Amino acid sequence: MIRSFVSYKLFFHYYLVLLFFLLSLCFKQKKIKTMRKILLGVFITLATMVSSCGSKDDDSTNDPQALIGAWQLESISVNGKEISLPACDAKEVRIYNGTQQQTYDFDTDNTGNCTFEKNTPTNYTVSGNTLKKGEDIYTFSISGNKLTLKYRDKNNNEGVAVFRKLTQSELEEINKMEYKPSQNNPLVGYWQIVSKTVNGVATTLDECTQRSMLAFGRDKIREYNFASNNQQCSYGNVEAKSYTLLGNSFIINDGKERAMPTFEIANDQLTITTNTLENWQNRKTVEVYRRITEAAFQANIK
Question: Using one digit for the tens of pLDDT, what is the confidence trace for 173-184?
Answer without folding.
Answer: 999 888 776 556
